[in-house]
Amino acid sequence: MNIYASSSNRPREASSFKLVAAFLLLALCIVTMVPSAWSQESAGSPSGQSTDGGTASSAGMQAAAGLLTIPYFPCKLAFAIAGGIVGGLTYAFTGGNDQAAKTVWTTSMYGTYILTPDHLQGNRPIRFLGVADADTSASAPEPIR
C-alpha cells in the first residue's frame, strides 16, 4: 500500500487555497478603495460641471489606474518596508543619527502608493522615490556665524 499517494494532492490544495485567498484579498482591496475614489469630487471646472465622472473615458482611466495599481502597490510597499529596515540599521550604525535615518526613510516611505487617473494623464507625478516636504527644509536651524 502506497501511503504517499493520498498526500500528493496536499501541495496542490495548499497552493490553490493561497491563490484563492490572494484573489479574495485583492477583491476586498478593490471593493473598498475604488468606491471611495469614485466618490471624491474634483475642484470643479469653470463651467461648474464636473468632468471626472459619468463618461466612458473617465471610467476607462479609473479602470486602467486600478489595474496598474495592482502590480505597482506591492512593489512600492516592499520598497518602503525594506527602506524602513535599512533606515533603522542606518540609525543604529551611525550612532543614533536621526538625519541619516530620516533621509533613508523619506526616500523609501514617501511617494505615490496608489495610481490615479491624474497620474496616468500626467496631471500629477508618479513618485516611486519619496521627496521631503518643502516646509521641513524651511524649519531647519540656521548655521551659527
Write up this protein.
The protein has a domain at 59-133. It is built from five helices and no strands. It has helices at 10-39, 56-93, 98-109, 117-121, 134-138. Residues 43-51 have low confidence and may be disordered.
Number of continuous helical runs: 5
| Structural Rg | 23 Å
Characterize the overall form: flat
List the helices and strands in order.
HHHHH
Report the major sheet.
none
Overall pLDDT, averaged? Answer: 75
- What fraction, in percent, of the residue positions are helical? 55-70%
pLDDT under 50 segments (min length 5)?
43-51
**Strand tally:** 0
Name the structural class.
Answer: mainly alpha
Task: Give the topology.
Elements: H1 10-39, H2 56-93, H3 98-109, H4 117-121, H5 134-138
Helix pairs in contact: 2-3
List keywords for this structure.
145 residues; mainly alpha
The gist of it:
This protein is 62% helix and 0% strand. By secondary structure, it is an all-alpha fold. Helix 2 runs antiparallel to helix 3 (98-109).
